[in-house]
Amino acid sequence: MADISLSSNTGISPYRSRAGSPRIATFEGASTAASTAVIRVGQVVSFDATSTSAHRLIRCSTGTTAIVSTTIAGIAAQEFTPGSSGRLSVWAADGQTEFKFPTKIAGTTPESIGTLMSLEYDSSLAIHYLRANSTAGDQRVRITEVLNPGDTNGYVVGVFISSACSPAVCQR
User: Fold this and answer.
1) Which of 1, 48, 89, 156 could form a disulfide with 150 if both were Cys (CB 3.0 to 4.6 A apart)?
2) CA–CA separation, 118 vs 131, rounded Å?
3) Strands 56-59 and 24-29
4) How crowded is residue 70: how many other Cβ atoms within 10 Å of its Cβ?
């Protein structure tokens, strides 16, 4: 059992895929988002909710509340700076790929397997993480494995639930 200190280098990464290797999809990145909304490898991205940019990806972040997006595309596989034109590659949240997520849980336990957790964003570290004690409306990830049970701020493996993912990437 270890106490893990999350840092700005903590990120989400593909863990395993039923297809053998995680599917990488490439979409346009947001060219009009604030320059402070840089997308880093390991951050959750979703399609922009604005009607004129619905085909572009942005970083999922809502400050101190759970992310309730229903247009999650996946996890950034490269860095992208808004304001630049270009495309962003992501490990797709396609229902086939499981991801390794950091948590903010005091003592991860195997009893978490099968449960749903909320996805949140820590703006001071600029990282996404999972949190227990969420409500049905903000649950975005189903836990499939607990790595090193007992760790505080430990890692779990999970898959995005289909209602959180964009139909452009979800293959369920």
Assistant:
1) 1
2) 5
3) parallel
4) 14
The domain locations on the chain are 13-164
C-alpha to C-alpha distance for 86 and 101, rounded to whole angstroms? 27
**Residue 93 and residue 70 in contact, taking contact as beta carbons nearer than 8 Å:** no
Angstrom distance (rounded) from CA 108 to CA 130: 11
pLDDT digits (tens, 9 = 90+) for 20-69: 999 999 998 876 656 567 899 999 999 987 767 778 888 988 666 788 88
- The answer to whether the beta carbons of residues 5 and 153 sit under 8 Å apart is yes
Alpha-helical (H) ranges within 30-78 are: none
Look at the alpha carbons of 125, 129, 131, 136 in this order and tell me if their dihedral is positive or negative.
positive
Higher pLDDT, 63 or 94: 94
Residues 15 and 99 sit within 8 Å (Cβ to Cβ): yes
b/e for 71-102, b at 16 or more Cβ within 10 A? Answer: bbbbbbbeebebeeeeebbbbbbbbbbbbbbb
88: which DSSP letter? E
The span from the CA of 25 to the CA of 169, in Å, is 8
**152, two tokens:** 């505080």
